Amino acid sequence: MSEKTVFTVNDMTCGHCAGTVRRALQEALPDAEISVDVATHKVSFTGDRAKGEEAIREAGYTPEAA
């Protein structure tokens, strides 16, 4: 089982943002379990932490260690 990574993404402020982040993670990590919570600005996923962080950044958001 892959370790879960959790980031706080404070500039993810709406459903559209959440969808963009989710799609970026799904493309980068197709087998990952992904959870996105706009209310708390938390994004969690399984799989390669560095690859997931890069995908979020490339989507235009700023992930910070939670």
Topology:
Layout: E1 4-8, H1 15-28, E2 34-37, E3 42-46, H2 49-58, E4 64-65
Helix pairs in contact: 1-2
Our measurement of the CA-to-CA distance between the termini, rounded to an integer number of angstroms, reads 21 Å
- Output the strand order for the largest sheet: 2-3-1-4
Query: The biggest beta sheet, please?
Result: 4 strands, antiparallel
Q: What is the CATH topology classification name?
A: Alpha-Beta Plaits
CATH architecture: 2-Layer Sandwich
Following the backbone from N to C, one meets helices and strands in this order, namely EHEEHE
Helicity level, as a percent range? 25-40%
Number of spatially distinct domains: 1
Assess the beta-strand content as a share of residues. 15-25%
Can you tell me the overall shape? globular
The CATH class turns out to be Alpha Beta
Radius of gyration: 10 Å
What does the model show?
- The protein is of the alpha+beta class.
- The chain has 2 helices and 4 strands, in the order βαββαβ.
- A hairpin with a 4-residue loop joins strand 2 and strand 3.
- It is globular and about 25 Å long.
- The N and C termini lie far apart (21 Å).
